[in-house]
Predict the structure.
Amino acid sequence: MVDQTRRRILAGMAALVPCAGAQVAVGTSSSLLPTETTPPVEIRDALTRTLGRMPVRPKPAFRTLESVKLPSGWRYKIEYLSEPADSLFHTPPDLVRAYLFMPEHKEHQKLPAIIAIHQDGPQSHIGKSEPAGLTGDPNLFYGLELFQRGYVVLCPDRFYHAERRRVTPNDMSSINPERDDQLQNHWVGQLLLRGRNGYGKEVYDSMVATDILRALDYVDAERIGAIGHSAGGNALVYFMFADERVHAGVSSCGLFDMCRFFDENAPMRRLAATALPNLAQVGSSADYLALIAPRPMLLTRGQWEWGKENGMREGWSKNHVEETKEMVARAREQYARLKATDKLSAIYFDEDGGNHAFPPHVRQQAYEWLDQQLSNATAAS
């Protein structure tokens, strides 16, 4: 029997567009959230619970592994603890390696800061080095480029990437995407057995990264943002939903509707480790985006991310764009309720073929948008 708390949650959720309704036609939507200025606690709590149990985070501290002087500041390679060893699964301490960029600055000056979240896929061996501008696609050197604009930037390895893989060697010379997918599934299995999941782990890790930035005396805690591409941009939305200390975010070709991701007619078959348990019973991916409101959020989407060389791929690409437009429209309802409609933006681009990418002019728009948002950032309520 459904208890009274569950009934209240379901009643509040009646206004949500759940995953089961992912095939609603473009241009139609129901009320995303009740009309109160602040969403009911039950709704936020229900969405938060899908992210799983969150351990107590360690006190922020790191050690410096290397220092490199750059023309406009410094690049440090650092290491910090995400989680201690787990005796149940005999796992070692989860140590994160990251690149930390520090611009030259005056004594006592407080600088804006960015967490730069890398992509994944067959690049699981690269990790943090791509946004740091050390290797990979130059269009994804957004951590380095934001440092050059005056931001403190932290580029951490995400869960199961690069130097966080428990393999030998665990550096960029170890290239085996199939093995790394198996590692991901195995480690997410450990999380599931602990009442956690992969997305929740990424959220937790990003919160630890935020702790690191806020502990730096030259970082302005009121002006911390985040940026990510592809899977990094997708995880960013769930992270910002959970952590109100992040004041603005850019999701490049990132956010997707998770239930469509696993639909029987989806273009690809996906790893179970990339699913968010119970989401279909609670709401939809767009709800997390909506509850970032009123903080500034920018999404980008290539017009032809699945290609357009044949009718099927062209159709997939168009559907992908329409899916994003639906999510933004539904989230905009909550932004409108909080009188912050102008804080949610989306760029749909054809530049460089409209691919799954972060091309130069789109990046420039994103950087200028971040400059504008973080120059006037205020503490989250």
Observations:
- Confidence is low (pLDDT under 50) at residues 1-18, 20-35, 376-381.
- The first strand starts at residue 62 and ends at 70.
